[in-house]
Design brief:
The chain has a domain at 4-64. It has helices at residues 4-7, 20-29, 34-41, 51-57, 67-75, and strands at 18-19, 47-48. Helix 2 packs antiparallel against helix 3. The chain is mostly helical and 89 residues long. The longest helix has 10 residues, at 20-29. Residues 63-89 are annotated as: Disordered. It comes from Planosporangium mesophilum. Pfam families: DUF2795. This is DUF2795 domain-containing protein.
């Protein structure tokens, strides 16, 4: 998981509102590392109106797992008997 400090520099030149693909394209153009691009590609494909929305949607340290996501993983047999910190998102 990347940090907000790693993602934020690649959002400075984005013209908001922007789609997920626009944001990923701009970050790639600026030379973002693969971890940052992966976090941005993992966002829902909607329009984002500012940097804060992007940081909440991208898998950064402020985008914690929601209770619904935890419950879905608990029901998924693939994740049973595996400690939570060892699970792959």
């Amino acid at each position: 998981m990347v940090t907000t400090d790693e993602v934020l520099p690649y959002l400075n030149t984005v013209d908001f509102p922007a789609t997920r693909d626009d944001i990923v394209r701009e970050a790639a153009k600026l030379g973002a590392p693969e971890g940052v691009l992966k976090a941005l590609r993992g966002m829902p494909p909607v329009d984002y109106h500012n940097k804060e929305e992007v940081l909440r949607s991208a898998k950064t340290e402020i985008a914690e797992e929601t209770p619904a996501e935890k419950a879905a993983k608990a029901r998924d047999r693939k994740h049973q008997r595996v400690a939570e910190y060892l699970r792959r998102p």
